[in-house]
């Protein structure tokens, strides 16, 4: 069935301003049900968590609902969902906690394809423990070959950190193959799903991820994040924490009082994704389907629609002799980085911005990628990222602006 993007766009109030938001990799616009849930929470009596009175019980219910929603989004268990302000903050918590048991001679494996949020916390934790850092390299085609991990992991490997999708090119490494190699050596696997979760159905069990981190603001939600693991995995870990704070799992990994209104928005964002098939006219929900089943269907609908727009974008960019597209394998998320001859990436992004086309430039925190390619010192690249509310007309608007000299 056709995808009714107009109906989808109508649920995003900010799109009415007329900008072409091809900047989803840096954060999507917020769906109306998300804004409504946040506002409704702020308008009602919600106190800090307490079983003694109703406003305190409401707060506890909001937290529990957010855990359940994230679990449905990625295929985890609510009791294994740790909530926090950002993927970076949560990854630091996990890295520092795991590193308590590391010793000199232990090893961690990171990749030069990753966002620095899944590199620097591990590198710094390894340095503090006297452990060794080993690097997985991407190839000239922009892929991260899984077979190299057979040589990178060994009996002293403690963690393998890898992205599920590059926030530069959208390249999607074969995480399951990498995880199987890591597990065979006795290592844990930490997967950065921040970019991937917004574009493809996610199943942490299929990925064999011991930890999976995602950020709600990349999938129509507020600025919050979650890292998901089996509850038993969290039970074995003891983070640094305040003495009076809860020692239960997953609470002991969450510092301070959470933003209850934003957690309500996080739940609403998952519900919005679950409604995409019906909302877009691409299909009706199966009677009795669980939210998990509806989310998987919704993300499948979004992925198919985005893939068609990606083809259109790539064809247009490759047809422009002034544009150089950074390489990526065929299996990718709908994200493209490029450079325009005779312009710095910042100049291209600014010129496009003047025409109402929102794209990013620079290294997008993919520090190792742009250092390895030699592009960082000259400004990185320009990034266009498609989301399920974008249109063919917006892709053409970007291509037309480039064709007119930006």
Automatic annotation (TrEMBL):
InterPro entries: Aminotrans_V_dom, Cys_dSase-rel, PyrdxlP-dep_Trfase, PyrdxlP-dep_Trfase_major, PyrdxlP-dep_Trfase_small
Regions annotated as coiled coil: none
Pfam families listed in its UniProt record: Aminotran_5 (PF00266)
Alphabetical list of SUPFAM superfamilies matching this protein: PLP-dependent transferases
Domain Aminotransferase class V: 22-275, 299-398
NCBIfam families: am_tr_V_VC1184 (TIGR01976)
Listed name of the protein: Cysteine desulfurase-like protein
């Amino acid at each position: 069935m056709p995808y009714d993007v107009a109906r989808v766009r109508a649920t995003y109030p900010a799109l009415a301003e007329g900008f072409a938001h091809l900047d989803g990799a840096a954060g999507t616009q917020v769906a109306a049900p998300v804004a409504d849930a946040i506002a409704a929470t702020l308008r009602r009596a919600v106190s800090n968590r307490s079983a003694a009175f109703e406003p305190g019980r409401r707060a506890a219910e909001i937290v529990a609902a957010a855990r359940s929603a994230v679990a449905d989004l990625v295929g985890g268990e609510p009791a294994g969902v740790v909530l926090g302000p950002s993927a970076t903050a949560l990854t630091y918590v996990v890295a520092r906690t795991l590193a308590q048991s590391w010793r000199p001679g232990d090893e961690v494996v990171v990749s030069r394809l990753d966002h620095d949020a899944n590199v620097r916390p591990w590198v710094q934790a390894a340095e503090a423990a006297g452990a060794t850092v080993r690097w997985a390299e991407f190839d000239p085609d922009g892929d991260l070959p899984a077979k190299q991990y057979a040589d990178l992991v060994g009996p002293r490997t403690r963690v393998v950190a890898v992205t599920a999708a590059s926030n530069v090119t959208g390249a999607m490494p074969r995480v399951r193959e990498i995880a199987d190699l890591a597990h065979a050596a006795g290592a844990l696997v930490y997967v950065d799903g921040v970019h991937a979760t917004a574009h493809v159905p996610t199943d942490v069990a299929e990925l064999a991820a011991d930890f999976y981190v995602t950020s709600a603001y990349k999938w129509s939600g507020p600025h919050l994040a979650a890292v998901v693991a089996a509850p038993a995995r969290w039970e074995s870990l003891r983070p640094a924490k305040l003495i009076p704070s809860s020692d239960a799992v997953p609470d002991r990994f969450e510092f301070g009082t959470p933003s209850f209104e934003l957690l309500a928005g996080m739940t609403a964002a998952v519900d919005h994704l679950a409604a995409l098939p019906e909302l877009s006219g691409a299909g009706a929900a199966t009677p009795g389907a669980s939210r998990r089943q509806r989310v998987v269907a919704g993300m499948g609908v979004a992925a198919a629609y985005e893939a068609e727009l990606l083809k259109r974008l790539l064809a247009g960019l490759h047809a422009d002799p002034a544009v150089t597209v950074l390489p990526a394998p065929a299996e990718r998320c709908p994200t493209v980085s490029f450079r325009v001859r005779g312009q710095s990436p910042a100049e291209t992004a600014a010129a496009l911005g003047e025409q109402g086309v929102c794209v990013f430039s620079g290294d997008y925190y993919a520090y190792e990628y742009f250092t390895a390619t030699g592009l960082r010192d000259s400004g990185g690249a320009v990034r266009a990222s498609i989301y399920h509310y974008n249109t063919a007309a917006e892709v053409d608007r970007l291509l037309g602006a480039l064709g007119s000299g930006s």
